[in-house]
Design brief:
Shape: elongated
Distance between the termini: 78 Å
Keywords: Cell inner membrane, Cell membrane, Membrane, Protein transport, Transmembrane, Transmembrane helix, Transport
Subcellular location: Cell inner membrane
Number of helices: 11
Number of strands: 10
Low-confidence stretches: 321-330
GO biological process, one term: protein secretion
CATH architecture of one domain: 2-Layer Sandwich
CATH class of one domain: Alpha Beta
Strand order of the largest sheet: 1-2-7-8-9-10
Radius of gyration: 29 Å
Structural class: alpha+beta
Organism: Ramlibacter tataouinensis
Main location: membrane
CATH topology of one domain: Pantoate--beta-alanine Ligase, Chain: A,domain 2
């Protein structure tokens, strides 16, 4: 009896171990299957997001190209300046008579797209402070000094910004990778690399940009805020605000028309102003199920037939998004 009980206990133990092993293997197989499905889903979402955002960028390029063909004046009443509010992507695709919901597919059916196009020549270009050789541009420094005064920012920070930018440009052209040289910023948020305080960067953000150009970029009077116009034209802020109010009713056809409100401007100040633009920023936001991706691109309109992408970056803003869609710069 004792031996039979021992054998029965051993058999029961073996059965329990067998069940535990089978359950472990099954759980491991199930986890592997789940992981494969998640990776495939993330990869599919990445590819879909990439194609959709690339399509939206091509659409923005087309709008800017057609706008250039319609005239040489850029203002806020043109189609490119109208923001795209969040809308279901399938509503645009289904407008095509040859496309049905079955052709669109379930992934795109749940995609929502929004975006804006901003004239970057409505901002002051920080890189205008120095020549490509590192030589300071006194006229641009004067314009930035006016902007700092309008925003009640310390002039010492402007001097530090200009000097460190000059140092970075010289180091980049003569001794790349120098240990003591600051990095050249690619975006306004990176002005901190040049010793600018976070508070100053935040105050400057709505009014400045960074464009890699060899010549100073004129400020577009039809799109720039009053603070930028006042700094570029060297006039009181109240006059610039009056110009902004009047241009909302009828845009300026040339920079000379601004003198009716701003007063007579010297040739060098008129040279810093314009009514057309070549640089634009496109921001697109894609919401695909639980995934939210934002893309920023800088476009240069070279002529009526050529709109080039000179900078592009894409960032996942949803903290729960797949790691495969982490921030990427191209």
């Amino acid at each position: 009896m004792t031996m039979k009980r021992t054998q029965a206990g051993a058999a029961l133990l073996m059965a329990m171990l067998t069940v535990a092993l089978v359950a472990t293997f099954a759980a491991a197989a199930l986890w592997q299957q789940w992981r494969s499905v998640e990776v495939e889903t993330a990869e599919r979402a990445r590819i879909q997001a990439s194609w959709i955002l690339t399509g939206s960028l091509d659409w923005a390029r087309l709008v800017l190209r057609e706008d250039a063909r319609s005239g040489n004046v850029d203002h806020l009443g043109e189609p490119w300046a109208v923001p795209l509010e969040e809308a279901r992507l399938s509503s645009f695709l289904s407008a095509d008579q040859g496309v049905s919901n079955a052709d669109i597919g379930p992934g795109v059916m749940d995609a929502f797209l929004s975006g804006t196009v901003t004239d970057l020549q409505s901002h002051l270009n920080v890189n205008d402070l120095v020549e490509s050789t590192g030589t300071p541009r006194e006229a641009s420094h004067t314009i930035f000094a006016r902007l700092f005064a309008i925003l009640n920012l310390p002039q010492s920070e402007l001097d530090k910004l200009a000097e460190n930018l000059r140092f970075a440009v010289v180091a980049a052209s003569t001794s790349p990778g120098a240990a003591q040289a600051p990095l050249l910023p690619q975006g306004v948020a990176q002005l901190a690399w040049l010793g600018v305080s976070p508070d100053t960067v935040a105050a400057l953000s709505p009014f400045v940009t960074i464009l890699n150009t060899t010549q100073p970029t004129p400020v577009n009077l039809n799109t720039a805020p009053a603070e930028v116009i006042a700094a570029a034209a060297g006039v009181p802020l109240a006059q610039a605000q009056q110009l902004v109010r009047e241009r909302d009713g009828a845009h300026l056809k040339n920079s000379a028309e601004a003198q009716r409100v701003l007063g007579t401007l010297t040739p060098d100040r008129l040279q810093a102003l314009g009514v057309s633009s070549s640089f634009f920023e496109v921001r697109a936001r894609l919401r695909l199920d639980q995934l939210v991706v934002e893309e920023r691109a800088v476009l240069q309109r070279v002529n009526r037939n050529d709109v080039r992408v000179i900078q592009r970056e894409r960032v996942v803003v949803d903290p729960n998004a797949p790691a495969q869609l982490a921030a990427a710069r191209r």
